[in-house]
Design goal:
Strand order of the largest sheet: 2-1-3
CATH topology of one domain: Ribosomal Protein L30, Chain: A
Length: 101
């Protein structure tokens, strides 16, 4: 048996990286009613009443709160949708996004 008969062939598969995740952040302001913030969190981010209240209070006490983590496109569209809901209602409600570390 010769050396060429025992050559193994390895199959290479390309590795695909997971998309980088982005945080959606609720920025506190002193003008948007708490009830409205809870309503936005429930409708845009599909949170329960209790979860929404907890996120809203955390942002109120600390100045900001991470609402959820998504891929970049989804995070940006949800942040825009939530901010636009506030603007349409005449509130300075603001959501931002930033890459997760």
């Amino acid at each position: 048996m010769s050396d060429t008969d025992t050559v193994r062939r390895t199959k290479t598969t390309p590795k695909t990286e997971r998309p980088r995740l982005h945080k959606v952040i609720l920025v506190n302001d002193d003008f948007t009613p708490r009830e409205f913030v809870v309503t936005v969190l429930k409708s845009v981010f599909r949170m329960t009443e209790e979860q929404s209240y907890r996120v809203m209070m955390t942002a109120h006490q600390r100045g900001v709160c991470v609402v959820a983590v998504f891929t970049r496109d989804i995070a940006e569209s949800k942040a825009t949708e939530a901010t636009d809901m506030g603007r349409r209602a005449g509130h300075p409600l603001m959501f931002t996004t930033e890459p997760e570390e």
